[in-house]
Design a protein that fits this description.
- The structure is a single chain.
- The chain is α+β, with helices and mostly antiparallel strands and 368 residues long.
- It has two domains: 41-197 and 298-363, no CATH class; 204-286, Pdz3 Domain (Roll).
- It contains ten helices and twelve strands.
- The strands form three sheets. Strands 6, 7, 8, 9, 10 and 11 form a six-stranded antiparallel β-sheet that branches. A four-stranded antiparallel β-sheet has the order 1-2-4-5.
- A hairpin with a 2-residue loop joins strand 7 (225-229) and strand 8.
- Helix 9 packs antiparallel against helix 10 (340-361).
- The longest helix is centred in the N-terminal third of the chain and has 33 residues, at 57-89.
- The N and C termini lie close together (10 Å).
Length: 368
């Protein structure tokens, strides 16, 4: 897949238009910062903001859970990313990887729209969680705002410096962990919703057929949708596997009700011999047909991108790399236990090593 230069061109035109509009019609306003790279809208927060959360026991209990989840996110980062980095560092071909988001190069089209919307939602929830748990610990919030960097939407909250410096290590860890933990929780909520939508299937879509396989002999082709197996209706992959049962070392006959791309339905009989281990088809969940399918498909895609964005933000932000919440957690913990230059050296080593691990794992493989 070659970079979409049209997409890059349109993105640049969009950003230039937004920048020029802001420069000529919004400049001079104290709450708006206009820069060739980003535009920031900043709003002061009143002292009564989220005042009702202060010293509530429920938030203290949740914050303890969030600290644990932030540590889990940090462990997940190393567990998932270190093998990729080692494979690339040793010259091996690593499967997958963390894709650097470059609009028009690694992602374009509808995928870019889904991505940007989910980034905006994830960033807002992330920063609101920081604000919520800061206020629950009695730390004031000076300001909050929104940033548009080229086309990437971001959000931020700014706690009161004096309040935050006076806060205990426990309170600081509570605030730091709130962001990545809220994203991790949201990621798994979206994954659950995605599983629910996947169960509302319209059958099993055949994506590929192996040459010489039982499926090819029976006349199955990519694009066909399996609606029933031996009289049992199948709505999704789970139903399909259940209807097939254990067939690997047996001679069996499967009677499939199949929907063709032209809308007609036919019956296909597959005869699998005992020395054949598979039917020879690649399969995926087929979206429901009709109006329901038109709704389920975009929602499912939106949920997929929501999961990807929130899970990625959780583990990367929990990793100790200079500007992340994980970096602040590790830095405060180390300086609390190791005073002076020794603590600074250990902290610096951990953060540089983590950054190198991330850099070695990055890929420019297109994802959409």
């Amino acid at each position: 897949m070659q970079p979409s230069y049209n997409a890059i061109f349109y993105i640049l035109i969009f950003w230039l238009s937004v920048y020029l509009f802001s420069k000529f019609y919004l400049r001079g306003r104290e709450n708006i910062v206009i820069n060739p790279i980003y535009i920031m809208i900043k709003k002061k927060i009143s002292e009564g903001f989220l005042e009702g959360t202060k010293n509530k026991r429920i938030f203290k209990l949740i914050s303890a859970l969030f600290v644990i989840l932030a540590v889990v996110s940090m462990v997940l980062f190393y567990y998932l990313v270190v093998p990729l980095s080692l494979a690339r560092f040793s010259g091996q071909e690593a499967q997958g990887g963390l894709t650097l988001i470059i609009p028009g190069v690694t992602i374009s089209g509808e995928s870019l729209i889904y991505l940007l919307i989910n980034i905006g939602i994830a960033a807002t929830i992330h920063e609101f969680s920081h604000a919520l748990f800061a206020r629950s610990r009695g730390i004031k919030i000076k300001s909050a705002g929104f940033i548009l960097a080229i086309i990437l939407p971001m959000a931020f909250v700014e706690p009161d410096d004096s309040d935050f410096k006076k806060a205990s290590l426990k309170d600081k860890l509570s605030v730091y962990s709130a962001g990545p933990s809220s994203n991790l929780i949201l990621a798994f909520i979206l994954l659950g919703l995605l599983s629910l939508f996947a169960s509302i299937g319209g059958g099993v879509l055949i994506t590929s057929v192996d040459q010489g396989s039982p499926a090819e002999r029976a006349g199955l082709e990519p694009g066909y949708i399996i609606k029933a197996v031996n009289g049992t209706v199948v709505k999704n992959l789970r139903d399909f596997q259940s209807a097939l049962g254990d067939y690997r070392e047996k001679e069996l006959v499967f009677v499939l009700e199949v929907l063709k791309p032209d809308g007609s339905t036919t019956i296909v009989t597959i005869h699998k011999l005992s020395n054949e281990t598979k039917l020879g088809i690649g399969i995926a969940n087929a979206p429901p047909q009709g109006v329901l399918g038109k709704l389920v498909t975009p929602i499912s895609v939106f949920l997929v991108w929501g999961y990807i964005v929130n899970f990625s933000l959780a583990i990367i932000n929990a990793a100790p790399m200079f500007i992340t919440d994980g970096a602040r957690m590790i830095s405060d913990l180390i300086t609390e236990k190791l005073k002076g230059d020794k603590g600074k050296a250990v902290n610096f080593f951990i953060q540089v090593l983590t950054m190198l691990i991330l850099l070695f794992s990055l890929s420019l493989q297109p994802i959409g």
